[in-house]
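tool_log.txt
---
The assistant was asked to compare two proteins side by side. It first ran the structure predictor on the initial sequence, then on the second. Raw inputs and outputs are pasted verbatim so the downstream comparison step can read them without reformatting.
(1)
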Amino acid sequence: DVVYGPAPSETYYWVSQDAPYYDARTNEVYINFTSTPKDLFTLQNDQVTATNNAAWNILQPSDWMVVRATETGTDPVPADWNTWRTNVRAYANTARDNINACTTVDELAALTLDFPKSPSESV
């Protein structure tokens, strides 16, 4: 049997596979990984860009509501959608602040993005 150790994310670390070793007591071959953190500043910039892109992609399908409200002046964006859009932008701002506050690659790798659900997804 071959037993693999946990492999860190190649998004945040340069990962190399260690030489396999055989344990005669368990009759298993073990393979582990060595990781070296990538450049924190570059990763932070990449994560900020990804957060901005995620927010844009999340908001874009409902942009038509804002355009219609602006153009017609008679059909406002529903309050729950306005609130949600505001919350998405606020969440993205907080996420960017959290990304830039990281002082190690491990801290950055532990962050997760969990944008608010739209009113249509919340139902």
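(2)
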Amino acid sequence: ILDLTNFSKINEDYGHDAGDLLLYEVEKCLGSTLRETDLISWVGTDTPGHRLLPSDRKTQYRATIARLGGDEFGLLLPSAQTAEQAHSVALRIVETLNRPFQIQGHEIIIGCRIGISIYPDHGKDEKLLIRNADKGMHRAKELNQAVYVYEKEMQNEKQPLAGAN
């Protein structure tokens, strides 16, 4: 889960049109930052009954990027098999987004926080993985870190209230 920092201030200071343009630029950056092995959406599926490719063809998975709402994005990285690999991709994303954007003649600087959860260590279904990645993102905010990998010790912590950034 990726959350942009100070996004509401961008809307307040420069208006919602500038905020929308910034989100568009962020989406472009996310797409260009990920490698071909990570890239947006997937081709094929291994789910029985849902094959998009002939069964004799190798399935290629790529990352999925989705805007979850407001200034929050969800990223699915099937090629990342370890927390270290996911952390490396997250740091690449942070480096790309922590730079000035030129929006409507204004130099706008944003940052982001990323929380990571890994299947199956941190959950075996999408809801739990998203919840745990969100907990990691909130922990990154608490610790003023760019990236935080969910830890099993966090499982009994309450989920922060929506909008409590």
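---
observation on (2): Residues 38-59, 161-165 have pLDDT under 50 and may be disordered. Strands lie at 2-5, 64-69, 72-76, 100-103, 106-109, 111-116, 147-149.
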